Description:
This protein is α+β, with helices and mostly antiparallel strands. The chain is built from 12 helices and 14 strands.
Amino acid sequence: MYAFTYERPASVADAARLAGSGAKMLAGGQTLLASMKLRLANPPSLADLGGIADLAGIRREGDALVIGAMARHAAVAIHADVLSAIPALADLAAHIGDKQVRAMGTLGGSVANNDPAACYPSAVLALGATVITSQRKIAADDFFTGMFATALNENEVITAVSFPIPTHAAYMKFKQPASRFAMVGVFVAKSASGVRVAVTGAANGVFRHAGLEAALNKSFTPEAAAAVKIDATDLNSDIHASAAYRANLVSVQTQRAVAKALG
């Protein structure tokens, strides 16, 4: 690990100022600290967001669930408002990594990092969530821009994510056994505005599947999902699974997610 300066801002404004001067935001540190230990990352300074209490809240606001950027996975998994409003989101959080990761990892850190196999980005995209930052509000469809890339500016800090409450939702993940990241994860959400399907782990970033959405908007059933052919052309192929295998997993996990969402 290279030398760095450690900062502990007391407010979002202080954190944004430090980000603008080149500091890297430290949320749960589950990816950043590991990268630094391997000398794959060399930030000049870290700004620890753990001292900003306002970033850890979870609350219901009308027809939306607002979760602070520093809410730990373990807290999301057991929070009463999450369990009652969007149980699929609580279930997703409960199966991220292991107990140690869930105790330290945060919603905001996962969303900002945008790992192509992370779970939370699929929930943000499928639920049509809004990412709230120190500067603005960003719609999910505009937020994720590529592998480990987002629409965030250098001096912008995520403060919360607002999730519209769906009528039906479920997340199904086929885990890579060693890392517990998603080899393929599918989040399905149905609301008054229609069905959204987000896939993680299968490609170079989280994405919506138009074919599955069109089929499920006509008939929200596992059979409708099964009838959609999944194109493997742009999917990942590696030592863990071929692109064809991942394509099959997208179909199977979508069918299972719909069945689970219907109860």
